[in-house]
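for the record, two folds in this file. i put them one after another cuz i was lazy. first one right below, seq on top, structure tokens after. the second one comes after a little note so u can tell where it starts
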Amino acid sequence: MASNEIDLTTTIWRKSSYSNGSGGNCVEVADGLTGIVPVRDSKLCHGPVLTVTAPAWTSFVIALKNAPAPRTS
């Protein structure tokens, strides 16, 4: 039986520039994989990985960049 798991053992992860150093908001993505973008919580580096298609990731990033800034009270 063929496995559809992606080998991420040599993957180089990049932390979001919006992540902070105090343990919160830590998102990492892996670049360089054809057609997919793996995403994980950097605090759980051996935990689950969410894999999305490259077009879906692009749409997500564009939507974030175009979203209004959250209001602070």
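(here's the note) second protein begins now
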Amino acid sequence: MKYYQAETHCHSAEISPCSRVPAQYLVSEYDAAGYKYVFLTDHYHPHVLERPELKKASWEERIDYFLSGYHKARECAQGTNVHVLLGMEVVLHRSEETGVGDDFLVYGFDKDFLMENPYLYRLSYEDFYRKISENGLLTFQAHPYRYGLKPVEPICYDGIEVINTHPRHASRNAMAIDFVAQHDLFVIGGSDAHAEEDIGRGGVMLPDGIGTPMDFVQFYRENGSPELIITFGADNI
């Protein structure tokens, strides 16, 4: 069976305030880098869903805005070899003082899930994971050792992002690998692309046939963690 490069963690400038890479550029660069799958994981965050421009918006209007980056990327992928899939990065327990919280990559959801489960970032760890589990989704704690953080315990996620190749943050990937070695968890890797130089530095290898986010979840459930794409030096990032 042939396997292909898949990006599991990247952000569009259309939605994520910290990204400077428009969806069109993301798609074209991942296509040039030979990636077949790109999960767009824009930030599900108060700075996105509660931005001043959305003050009078309904929840559906907020979700339509959140999904607009994904729809733009899908549109841009037409005529390329890239298949864009939906994901998100949800922040929990964000500190108002530092702006930092624990981030979780989520896969397998659709608009209906977002509509039926508003303001996920206001939930406790336990309630968040209960919603993830009840709906058959998959979640990984992203870059759990960045900013001096550590993996949430008791464990309330399916896996850990053990390789995050963002070049401007100390993600301390080796510590994440050590943590996973002590627990029965899935692993994932991603570029965490926010800028031009981040694109195509990480990810996982996936086979043909990943047509929907739930196919990706099913692949993990049936096969375990896939092979990771590791940029030279990423273990020290």
